[in-house]
Amino acid sequence: MEKTDESFIGGGTQGSFISYMFSMTDGEKVELINMFQYIILAIIPIILIVRLMKTYIPPVNNKKGSAEVSVELIVQLVILVSVIFLIHKLILFIPTYTKQNYPSIQFFPILLPLLFILFTLDKNMGEKAQLLLQRGLVLVGVNKENFEGADLEEEEKAQAQTSQTVSGQMVGQQMMPPQMSNPGMMEPPVRKSDKQQPQQQYGIQEPFAANDFGGGYSTF
Length: 220
Prior knowledge:
Elements: H1 17-22, H2 26-56, H3 66-93, H4 108-121, H5 123-140, H6 147-174, H7 178-181, H8 192-201
């Protein structure tokens, strides 16, 4: 007769699905409560660290050198991992509600997933890493074109077009004629002599009035 090994669970356990999913042993209850306590105690320090990082960590600047960007990225990673380690020790110092200690955690297996999550989700770190990677590929010769310079040129062209558009609108408003700016203004009346002058220049003469030759006295 074969003996079953009780150290293995699942894959043939007796009972229904609901009873299996919602029934917990004492050890599972303790582990679940400790996990909730750990998460609740870690929320406030993590929020403070994220706030400080967004405030004091310099943003990505394409004009900085590769050495300066590398130093910023390395210092940022060292500070972040150190702070996470200290937060973990602080949570372990606080007594648990269940009076049972937390399970031992080794940080070395967690470092690779942590770095992957940081470079994927953290925009600041991801952009700095991409910038260093592009510069390295250009330096080695894999990328023939410097995409960083192309992006800067496109930004400068867009800014120049925007400034030209704004200046053109301002000049157009200043050069607008008065009759366009104030439609209610009337043109000055034109005198009769001004209308007759162009006709006299082309040899067309109109009969003169008697008053134009000395107060009504005729030369004949």
